[in-house]
Specification:
The chain has 64 residues and is mainly α. Helix content is 80%, strand content 0%. The protein starts with a helix and ends with a helix.
């Protein structure tokens, strides 16, 4: 995912979780991502992918 794609998919709370994962406060985590920190980018991308997978998993269970 590009930085722009990540920005589009980022939801409320994602930077908070990113901060917790990185062991820093959410605003600092957001700034690291926006400055192009590869580690922050990789972690935020994983947060987004995992959230999307979790949503799909429970929507499938709901339909069944």
């Amino acid at each position: 995912m590009t930085i722009e794609q990540i920005k589009e998919k980022t939801l409320y709370g994602d930077y908070t979780l990113l901060g917790q994962v990185m062991g820093i406060k959410a605003p600092a985590a957001k700034m690291r991502f926006l400055r192009g920190d590869e580690n922050a980018k990789r972690m935020l991308q994983k947060i987004i992918i995992n959230r999307e997978n979790l949503i799909m998993e429970f929507q499938k269970e709901k339909e069944a």
